[in-house]
Write a structure and sequence with these properties.
3-stranded parallel β-sheet
């Protein structure tokens, strides 16, 4: 069955589902991420390419990525990461990607913080996970 393709900023290639951004980085802004990332996520979630609806009306993901790695930086502490929660929900419900990992470098702008050390610790965590 062919699904109608929404035309948003040109056409969306069916090959996209094989190349979904598995690595996403965003600064932590206003309890989430910058609005341009939300716009991007909305533009790539296209029926028939990123997901389809079952006969019962339930979204079923068509993406082939096995996991999404979300990295973020924050000037202060992050108490609740609504940006990552949004990405997880989108991946679970619409894209069919059920493994999501978040790495963060927090408190970079706190007075007296050693930014290099904070960033190195985050990079070491990422590299240790990939090993």
């Amino acid at each position: 069955r062919r699904y109608p393709q929404r035309r948003i900023c040109g056409t969306v290639s069916p090959e996209w589902r094989f190349r979904i951004a598995r690595n996403t980085h965003a600064p932590y802004w206003d309890l989430s991420f910058p609005s341009i990332l939300k716009v991007y996520l909305e533009l790539i979630c296209v029926v028939g390419i990123a997901f389809q609806y079952t006969p019962e009306g339930i979204p079923a993901g068509l993406c082939k990525a096995k996991r999404v790695i979300y990295t973020m930086t924050a000037g202060g502490p992050v108490y609740e990461n609504m940006g990552f929660d949004y990405v997880k929900s989108l991946c679970d419900v619409f894209l069919g990607i059920h493994e999501h990992i978040c790495f963060s470098a927090q408190n970079i702008d706190v007075a007296g913080a050693d930014e290099d050390s904070i960033l190195k610790k985050a990079l070491d965590e990422i590299e240790g996970w990939e090993a």
